[in-house]
Amino acid sequence: MSGTARLEIDGTVYELDTVVGSEGERAIDISKLRATTGYITLDDGYGNTGSCRSAITYIDGDAGILRYRGIPIENLAGRSSFVETAWLVIFGSLPTVEERDRFSALLGESAMIDEVMRKHFHAFPQTAPPMAILSAMINTLSAHDHGVIQIDDDSDMERAAAVLMSKVRTIAAAAYKASVGEPLVYPRYDLKYAENFLHMMFSVPYRNYEPTPEVAAALNLFLMLHADHEQNCSTSTVRMVGSSKANLFASCAAGVCALWGPLHGGANVAAVQMLQQIYDSGMPVSEFVTRVKNRDAGVKLMGFGHRVYKNFDPRSRILKKSVDEVLAQQDKTDSLLDIARELEAAALEDDYFIERKLYPNVDFYSGILLRAIGIPSEMFTVMFAIGRMPGWIANWKELNDDPKGRIYRPRQIYTGPTDQDWAPRGER
Ligand code: SDX
């Protein structure tokens, strides 16, 4: 169903088509605006601009709704695995038994990286940021496996998705092992997705790491909750790069770089660092809240606020519950969790945050959950990238499946110097 919007410019009325999505979202189609009016639109940060039509994920920021292919995240949490959710997000429906078995086998067979690639990890300094290694090594995969560069049919797509999802685990764990001076651990075919990652992260030659079922389930849940999230900064980056017909691996490597920023996927580390600083300083939470409100030196409440959610991020609620369960099962407490809870309670009652509709987002509790699982903080954003890989793959696939797809090339309003001439050096 579509309609018409009327725009009056300099006395002339223009009619523009409107578009309505399956959840009633409405848009004005401005694809012919410049040709008919000579005007472009300007929208800092794209807060009001849709870049595409997509059938993958739906968010209602006011109601705090998140659905993957129409299934609410709450219905998947605790019932669906990360691998099953990845299939849903990438291929559009929950996998049949046959599809699930086929994809799991592909993931198991694709877990190893080329033996030559393993040498790269010891060429990085031990202090190298794992996100830099992740992005570099995802691109390197295409140097070793040309079959993932050219994707011509569904079978190629399925294999490329499995290769990327499986090997990103191995690369992440290898980056960690190299950073702590331990031997890289080979994947095992008999382990499930999360368990295999934890094995490669924490097993050593003289002892295999066996995660408790609760830890494995918590990691599965963490990854599933991060699987996709509409046109966020990193997913839009994957689409931007993919729109030039760059291959899946190059596009997702670019997504890793966008996710790295502290305003995006880097917020899970920044949130835990913020909590740790409050704890180490002994500063009352109320004093920190005051600093945030006074905008002292740009202090923000990391893990709070969201461009789309103006209500609770449904993922933060689920993560908070999982933290409680994992810590209870381990008979542990975490002082940072106590501070997080106090901060959340203070912010939810404070007009400064209420007026700006600032609520905990996915990054507020995710770092505390990763701590409880035993993941070191320098790996937190890498974990986000592993979880988001299905969403990046799904968006790249949706973009490339569109026969009318065009290269992304936004316009601008030029504000620089007008017509200038070159001047000889002595006259500058
Ligand atoms: C993710 O897009 C996605 O879907 C992302 C993500 C995904 O799954 O892909 O959900 C993952 O990136 C979650 C967000 C993680 N980032 C953080 O937690 C960093 C802290 N949050 C902020 O930097 C901020 O809230 C953003 C970046 C998340 C959103 O920024 P916006 O939409 O540009 O909001 P804004 O900066 O315009 O803020 C509006 C107001 C401002 O105050 P005023 O100038 O109007 O007085 O709210 C204030 C901001 O100063 N504000 C905050 C704040 N976030 C916004 N004040 C204190 N602490 C904060 N965290």
What gross morphology would you assign? globular
Helix share bin: 40-55%
How would you write the strand order of the largest sheet?
A: 1-2-3
The molecules bound to the chains, other than polymers, are: s-citryldethia Coenzyme A
**Please, how many helices?**
18
Q: Could you describe the largest sheet, including whether it forms a barrel?
A: 3 strands, antiparallel
Q: How are helices and strands ordered from N to C?
A: EEEHEEEHHHHHHHHHHHHHHHHH
Helix and strand composition category:
mainly alpha
- DSSP strand tally: 6
> Measured on Cα atoms, how large is the radius of gyration?
23 Å
Low-confidence stretches: none
What is the overall pLDDT average?
96
Strand share of the residues?
A: 5-15%
- How far do the termini sit from each other? 60 Å
What do you see in this structure?
By secondary structure, the protein is mainly α. Helix 6 runs antiparallel to helix 11 and helix 9 (213-225) packs antiparallel against helix 17 (362-373). Strands 1-2-3 form a three-stranded antiparallel sheet. A three-stranded antiparallel sheet has the order 4-5-6. It has helices spanning 33-37, 73-76, 82-91, 97-109, 115-121, 130-144, 154-179, 193-202, 213-225, 233-242, 248-259, 267-281, 285-293, 314-329, 335-348, 351-355, 362-373, 380-401, and strands spanning 2-9, 12-20, 26-28, 57-60, 65-68, 71-72. It is globular and about 80 Å long. The site of s-citryldethia Coenzyme A (SDX) has 21 residues, from helix 17.
